[in-house]
Amino acid sequence: MRLDEQALASGMQAMMRGIVITAVTTQAISVTMPRDGSVLQGTQFYRDSGGGRR
User: pTM of the entire structure?
Assistant: First the structure.
């Protein structure tokens, strides 16, 4: 394998890894944040107790 091909493959692998990590993190946040929220006139509000649950 030529060096430029290896560099391209390495860059693509790093980019795909970043995309997957971002997608999983975004999905996890989207699932966990609404649990303790409330909806007022169609707008989701999230609770911020400033240091954890009480």
Answer: 0.57
